[in-house]
Amino acid sequence: MQVENSDIRGHVVVVMAPMGSGKGTIVKYALAQYPGLKQTISCTSRAMRPGEVNGQQYHFVTAEEFDRKIEQGEFLEWAVFAGNKYGTLKSEILPRLADCEVVIVEIELQGVEQLLKLLPRDQMTIVYIEAGSWEVLRARAAARAPMSETELQSRYERYLIEQRAKPIADVIIDNSGNIERACVEFDQVIRAVYSKCKL
After folding, report:
1. Which of 29-33, 90-94, 117-121 is predicted most confidently?
2. 43: helix, coil or strand?
3. What is the pLDDT of residues 146-187, one digit of tens each?
4. Mean pLDDT, to the nearest integer, of 58-66?
5. Where are the domains of the chain?
6. Residue 27: which residues within 8 A CB-CB, separation 6 or more?
7. CB of 112 within 8 A of CB of 14?
8. pLDDT of residue 1
9. Angstrom distances, CA of residue 78 to CA of 21, 89, 90, 113, 184
10. What is the fold, at CATH topology level, of the domain defined by 5-40+100-194?
11. Whole-angstrom Cα distance, residue 129 to residue 140?
């Protein structure tokens, strides 16, 4: 599926944030405020966890299916994290951009770098959610759900990568202590983004 740059009338809001940053709460708040706002569902090769539903948290596929989608050019971007592949399907985003919709995409730095090569920069806003030191984020994550040392190490490595991504962000939202204020700041971003759509 191909959409020419001239056909992209909507806008992509890329959200980057470490675990425990409150990203999910902030995005959920925005989705409730703007019924027309869309959020992509990523595709992943990792196994489904208890309580997850295919097509809700992720589109779950086998590693072989994921590789086949790569070969067929079905991904707008994809990346590897902790031995599993994650990707944004073109079908999740390009038709929406052509229809002048605003789409929220939650991806890693590797994926953002790919998106920057594929989409017009003026139709993309990159938001980074800052939420404190690794020790603070680790404590938040541990309080939410137990993690093995191996998973924590993977998360720490991911945290370091995400910290390096801050310079490319258009907006940095501080959520180190006030989630309500962070939600309001993200709301302001969404309002500004809607004004950029090519109606």
Report:
1. 29-33
2. strand
3. 777 787 787 788 788 778 878 999 999 999 889 999 999 999
4. 97
5. 5-40+100-194
6. 15, 39, 104, 106, 186
7. yes
8. 41
9. 22, 9, 11, 10, 30
10. Rossmann fold (3.40.50)
11. 15
